[in-house]
Amino acid sequence: MDIQEMKAVVIDRFGGTQNLRLADVPLPQPGPGQVRVHVAFAGVNPADWKDMEGLVAGFYEVSFPHILGFDAAGVVDAVGPGVSGFAPGDPVFTTSDHGDGLAGSWAEYLLVSAPRLALVPAGLDLASAAAVPIAALTANQALLAPQRGNLQAGQRVLIHGASGGVGSFAVQLAALAGARVATTCSAANLAYVGELGSELALDYRDPDFPQRLRDWSGEGLDLIVDAVGGDTLPERLQLLRRGGRLVSIATLVADGDVAAETAQARSMGREKIYAIMDADRAGEELAALGARIAAGELRLPPVQVIDLQDAVNAVELVRSGHVRGKLVLRVCGDGF
Predict the structure, then answer these.
(1) How many CB atoms lie within 10 A of CB 47?
(2) Across-strand partners of 166?
(3) Is the per-residue pLDDT at 234 higher than 90?
(4) pLDDT digit string, tens, across residues 73-130
């Protein structure tokens, strides 16, 4: 059957969820170095509602109708010239090329640069695989990249906002690196983050949590990874030891005065790093993370599946900021 169109969630202008619609759009054709993926499930990330509202439009060129979505899992449908290592029928998970101005993953088919792709490890279902790319890559880079957290065994790290998608992976990756891990989250999630590897789990609503961190860390924390942003972490620079690092994962809406805080950190002998996920080695990193998942070293966060036609509900949930684990959209599901 010769397919010319596909279903996708699009917007025709920036704004609220009232602008989301399910539409028929042309089926994309893979060019050199590209792979077309038949999307089974697509991830839902905080970046999606910000993209919907136009808050990330300054990072790449946008044309309408605009397809949302930054990651996905599915099956290779077609490959362009020059692609090796992937063939039709391969199960894959990937970040989209959305950040480079191409169509997003909330569609039946997705074009993606081959270096972004990784094979889904045996035993991992596609819904779970779709929950991995953006969250796990963001956590991995924030913690372990030399120019970011550069976390070392024996160091003390705080994961602020530990029960969401990024935080759930960050807690585990920090513990696997041999670090001692403290976390903040809501009271309802304290036991959950403890199961992930948090030695000290604190309710972010407890006004005494900064003092409890000081008591635990002694001379101060080596690293803070802030997955929440805004003014939700009081005295964060003061919680660090001299030479410690604050890695603030970009929220794009509540990042404050980054230049001023960077200068303040420098004046105190600390370092402030503003982190945006880097997709240059996404496929390679995803393959390594997938191997750790397959080996049972990394536990997947809870995954909630929502049908593509209910994308409005998914966006509203992720925008609330109180999702434990990850949301994914069922696009074509497992029925290929």
Answers:
(1) 27
(2) none
(3) no
(4) 999 999 999 999 999 999 999 999 987 778 999 999 999 999 999 999 999 999 999 9
Tokens of 177: 């690196």
Angle between helices 133-144 and 282-294 (to 10 degrees): 100
Q: Which residue has the tokens 């992976």?
A: 169
For 72, other C-beta atoms within 10 Å of its C-beta total 31
pTM for this model (two decimals): 0.94
CATH number of 5-132+300-330: 3.90.180.10
Q: Strand, helix or coil at 251?
A: coil
Amino acid 194 reads: G
169-206 per-position pLDDT tens digit: 999 999 999 999 999 999 999 999 999 999 999 999 99
CATH 3.40.50.720 fits 143-275, yes or no: yes
CB atoms near residue 111 (< 10 Å)? 21
User: Where, residue-wise, is CATH 3.40.50.720 in the chain?
Assistant: 143-275
What's the rounded Cα separation, in Å, for the pair 215 and 207?
14
Domain with CATH 3.90.180.10 in the chain: 5-132+300-330
